[in-house]
């Protein structure tokens, strides 16, 4: 049981260290945040969004309805810019980075960048539904943002589990110690009787 508790605590520390930096920054005049891949831990960058894994993740994102849901939820630019959307959607999988200065048409259609050199991802943007910005670093950062959020939720559960396990372990140790003490007293009394 002590080994299980130690492993659980090690996993908790690892999860908090890896997910500590969030990579997000506020965008003036927007209800959402954007993310930069450099703002996340190097472990997450290396193991989650490296080129070996990204191809499969990108294909999965392109097949999902994560971006098409935006077009059903936000009908006007004001709704979209004030919306609180997920890191995956807000950071650049479904829209170009704000610094590019694209004009809003719909959540997944943007035209005429005012500052195409503002970010390398500006050149990766496409209005094609199966392309969008799935090859952008900002999309990878959005995935890390979502992953960080989910790991933080799981860590809350792990903390509760660790506290319960520690409590059960302490109670069990006390009960075992008491049982040994009772047995010792019983033998001691039998020796004098």
Automatic annotation (TrEMBL):
Membrane topology type = Multi-pass membrane protein
Q: Where in the cell is it found?
A: Membrane
The regions listed as transmembrane in this protein's record are: 157-179
Annotated signal sequence range: 1-15
Question: Which BP terms from GO are recorded?
Answer: auxin-activated signaling pathway
Q: Which family does it belong to?
A: Belongs to the tetraspanin (TM4SF) family.
Q: What is this protein called?
A: Tetraspanin-2
- Source taxonomy: Eukaryota, Viridiplantae, Streptophyta, Embryophyta, Tracheophyta
């Amino acid at each position: 049981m002590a080994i299980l508790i130690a492993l659980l605590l090690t996993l908790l520390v690892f999860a908090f260290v890896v997910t500590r930096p969030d990579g997000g920054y506020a965008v003036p005049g927007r209800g959402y945040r954007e993310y930069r891949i450099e703002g996340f831990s190097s472990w997450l960058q290396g193991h989650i969004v490296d080129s070996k894994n990204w191809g499969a993740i990108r294909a999965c994102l392109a097949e999902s309805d994560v971006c098409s849901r935006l077009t059903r939820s936000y009908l006007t630019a004001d709704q979209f810019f004030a919306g609180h959307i997920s890191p995956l959607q807000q950071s650049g999988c479904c829209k170009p980075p704000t610094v590019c200065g694209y004009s809003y048409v719909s959540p997944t259609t943007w035209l005429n960048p005012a500052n195409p050199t503002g970010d390398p991802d500006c050149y990766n943007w496409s209005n094609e539904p199966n392309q969008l910005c799935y090859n952008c670093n900002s999309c990878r950062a959005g995935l890390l943002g979502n992953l960080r959020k989910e790991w933080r939720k799981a860590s809350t559960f792990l903390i509760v589990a660790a506290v319960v396990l520690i409590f059960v372990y302490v109670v069990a140790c006390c009960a075992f110690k008491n049982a040994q003490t009772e047995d010792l007293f019983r033998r001691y009394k039998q020796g004098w009787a």
